[in-house]
Amino acid sequence: MTVSWLQLERYALGELAGSERDDVERRLAESSADRACLDTILNDTFVMPPLPAPKPALSPWWWAVVPLAAAFALMMIPTSDLPGSPGVKGGEVAITLLSERTGSTVRGYRDGERFKLLVTCPPAYSSRLAVVMFQDGQRYQPLAPADLACGNQVPWPGAFTLDGAGEVEVCVTWSDKPARSARELEPDVVCTRLKHE
Amino acid sequence: MDSYRRYGPALLRKARRLLRNEDDALDAVQALFLDLLQRPEPEQFELPWLYRALTHRCLNMMRDRRTRSRLLARESPALAYPARIAPDVQALGLDVLCKLADRVEESVMETLIYRFFDELGLEEIATVMSVSRKTVQNRLTRATEAMRALAPEVQS
Asked: What is the dihedral of CA B116, B119, B121, B123, to 10 degrees?
């Protein structure tokens, strides 16, 4: 059995103890391939450069615009489009897309434009949510799934870029199905469409 | 940040294995710690947790089409590490990984990376991801099927 890179790294850092450490040492004694991997760790002399200065926090005007824009976007979402399922009642999940650059809600996108996603979901809701995007018959996952602390207009970690020429459907789903279209995810999905500008 | 100094090199090696270029690997690790620094409460992070956070970050980079183009342009197979479990999978190249990332769920992709690139055992993956060993096995089966389905496209 191979000693994983994670175990080798922890071993090199002196983080393994007791039987775990003994086990790794026994396997290192038996496997030259594992020893070679440990050597690459021990011989890596790269020193981490200092962390760059963090980007400044969002400017005050951005924070002023977001709640207004988000409230406006919520009003624009027809409740009939919202999902219904045993776990989440219709109208309880909503999404808002904001241009990362301007902080305003959008109806279309330009090539290379970046977006942030806000999700409104019931505070007690604990299912894992995923962002999926459909464009030109293809499915994309622009952001990692997240266990959001649900609430009103909760920002999804990170931002994503849109490009291409076709209409894009950006969805949040609580289904694990590898669907090819938003329709296949119904009713466990809520989506918004953006046209290319 | 102590965790950055202590775990940065280990995470950088992981990012290199996956992204196969030095600059983006370093960017990914530094961006991860910059995000962690912005948490309201300072925390100490353990390596398995950081491994997972970095995996998500690298997957995001592969899915983002702008970042993806850059990654593919900068890919350097010379940064590959000795492969012990699945040399054929590790040799697939970033392009195939990016295509897979579009087609399978995050959890499947994450499992594939732990198994074939970080070379974790099934028990170890189950512990890192807080799932059962059977779930890990099922996800690996799905990853293998997706790779098989992608094969004709790659060959052409």
From this structure: -90
Query: pLDDT tens, A63-76?
Result: 566 666 666 665 65
pLDDT at site A115: 87
How far apart CA B123 and CA B136 sit, in angstroms, is 8
Mapped onto helix, strand or coil, the DSSP state of residue B69 is: helix
Residues 66-125 of B with CB under 8 A from A: 66-67, 81-82, 84-85, 101-107, 118-121, 124
pLDDT tens readout for residues B96-121 = 888 888 888 889 999 999 999 999 99
Count, residues in chain B: 156
Q: Which residue of B has its CA nearest to A47?
A: B9
Whole-number Å distance between alpha carbons of A132 and A174: 10
Among all residues of chain A, which has the CA nearest to that of B8?
Answer: A48
- Count Cβ atoms below 10 Å from residue A6 Cβ, excluding itself: 21
- ipTM confidence: 0.91
Q: Chain B within 8 Å of A59 (Cβ-Cβ)? A: no
